Each structure stands twice: as C-alpha cells, then as structure tokens.
Amino acid sequence: MPIEVQALDFSDPGHREALAQLLVAFSSDEAIAGKGMSDDTAHAAVAGLADRHPRAWVALAWDRDAVGSPGDDAASPGHTGGAAGMVITIESYSTFQAAPVLNLHDVAVSSKYRRRGIGRMLIQAARDEAERRGCCKMTLEAFRENAAAIALYRDVGFRSPGEGTATGETLFFALPIPS
User: Fold this and answer.
1) Which is it for the CA torsion 12, 77, 82, 118, positive or negative?
2) What is the DSSP-derived secondary structure letter of residue 28?
3) Does the N-terminal peptide bond of residue 100 adopt cis geometry, omega within 30 degrees of 0?
4) Helix crossing, 13-27 with 39-52: angle to 10°?
5) pLDDT tens digit string along 116-174?
6) Pairing mode, if any, of strands 137-140 and 56-63?
7) Distance between CA atoms of 20 and 45, rounded to whole angstroms?
8) Long-range contacts of range 27-35, CB-CB < 8 Å, 24 or more positions apart?
9) How many CB atoms lie under 10 A from the CB of residue 72?
C-alpha cells in the first residue's frame, strides 16, 4: 500500500470532496466522542478554509492503489476512495517568541488505514510546512481519552508547555459563541 502525502489543492474539486468526506468520517469518530456533521457542514468547512483562511494549510494522505488517488483519472468528485487521512493546520502567532506558530487543528486517519504510520507521515508533512514558514513551534489539542493519538503525539515530540515544571500542564478552554 503506497501512501503519498500531498498538500491539498483547493482548486481541485476531487481534493475538496476528499477533504469533506474525511471531515464527515472524523466528526463521527468514537475516539473524539464525535456526534458527526452533515455533508453540507463539511462542504461549508472546506469552502471556509479555502475562502476565509489564507494561512490554512491542508495535506491529504492518499492510497495510490485505491480509486481516487492523485494522478488517477478517477480523482474527481464522487471518486475519493483513495483519501486515507488528513491534517488541517492554521497559522497563528507567538507574541512570546515573535514568530509564527502552526496549529494542527485536525489530524485524522480513516479507520481502515490506522496503525500504518499515516498519522506520523501527516504530522511530518505539517512539520516540514512549519519549518518552511519559519514557525517557532507547532501546537495541537487532543481529547484526554484519545490514548492512541496522545501516544503518537508524544512519540513525535509534542509535550504540554510547562510539563515537568512548577507551572504544570497547560490547559485548553473553549467558550462557545453565543454562550
């Protein structure tokens, strides 16, 4: 199973459809207690990334042996069977280090492709992009119960800021708008 990680081309309808379908699957995943999202919401998310977030960068992992992989004539809407995983990143800025930060907003691998190193490949592609952009660090968040993801993140070097110091673990909070 040759896997290729490729930056998403928002102008390619097949890429956009593959990302939307990966978002639908990821949003329903038990590992994140997902409640799922509609196809309409997934397509709106893809359009929002393309149109409203110029500092977003997305990569897809493709199974080159499956229908819909890059370079395959079937890589068009409705033929996205080759999409094995995704990483969606959004650049922010560290005022403490006066440098960009690349946040791994979503990292997901389709259930049938898990435990094959694809998540690691996606994170490495994001790291390469972060280095290209001159980022001082990458960040992400994970559900405490998602042990497999946390093990991967720790294995590739992610740590909680302040971990092992008197300041302790950094916590993540969210405030829904409207609240």
Assistant:
1) positive
2) T
3) no
4) 120
5) 999 999 999 999 999 999 999 999 998 888 889 999 999 999 988 777 777 777 777 88
6) unpaired
7) 8
8) 29/108, 29/111, 31/143, 31/145, 31/146, 31/148, 31/149, 32/143, 32/146, 33/143, 33/145
9) 17
Cα separation, 92 vs 85, whole angstroms? 23
Q: What residue type is assigned to position 50 of the chain?
A: A
pLDDT of residue 65: 84
Torsion over CA: 53, 55, 61, 64 (sign): positive
Who contacts 55 (Cβ-Cβ below 8 Å, separation ≥6)?
A: 90, 91
Reported as a pLDDT band with limits 50, 70 and 90, residue 81 is low
Tokens 């972060």 found at: 130
- The yes-or-no verdict on residue 72 having pLDDT over 60 is no
Condensed to tens digits (0 to 9), the pLDDT of residues 110-124 reads 988 999 999 999 999
Measured distance CA(149)–CA(66) in Å, rounded = 25
Measured CA to CA, the distance from residue 113 to residue 63 in angstroms comes to 9
Distance of CA 158 to the CA centre of its chain: 15
Token pair belonging to 143: 């559900």
pLDDT band at 73 (very low <50, low <70, confident <90, very high): very low
